[in-house]
User: What shape does this take?
Amino acid sequence: MGKNAARPTSTNAASSGVSIDRQLSKQLMKRSDRPGLIWLGQWITLLLFTGYLLHLFEGSAWFIPMLFIYGTAIAVPAYALSHECAHGTAFRARWVNETLFWISSLIYFEEPSYRRYAHARHHTYTWINGLDAQMPFSTPMTLSSWLLEVSGIGYLVSNTTVMWANALGHFSDEVREFTPASELPKLKWGARACLLVYLGIDGSTS
Assistant: This one.
């Protein structure tokens, strides 16, 4: 951070003036697998429906627009599922949460353990340049950084770089800072597992 940059300050519900009724809070905090499984069923149904339409439009002028719709139906819910599973809040059953965390993170192109620790860092230093571990660009954004972000190129390059480095055990100072030392082997083997899955998919489709 530069000398003139504003220092991050701690905030909480009390300092921000946010309050919530105790009974409502208890209701919202009640854990269950049912809402998550219903949502998962709806997502799978959406994928089957849009995938079928994509198949129908193959070879026509509508294929590319349909491909965009199908890709959105995969990527956006995958991010939401990965995010909630990273917090452990999507499902009450831990094994269901962790299994779907892996699947959704693979779809969204992030190694799960790295995602979990980087996201915790993000919540601690949200949108603070040099501290937020999930900022592939600095703010304020330039036109070039904005183009890289909306195109997905910035995300792809950033995640590929981190995944390869972690798979080789070349952990950056930033990764070592927000990841417990005992968890670093998990990041390494997780990244290797992800790369093997991607290589396997590439080999099976080529």
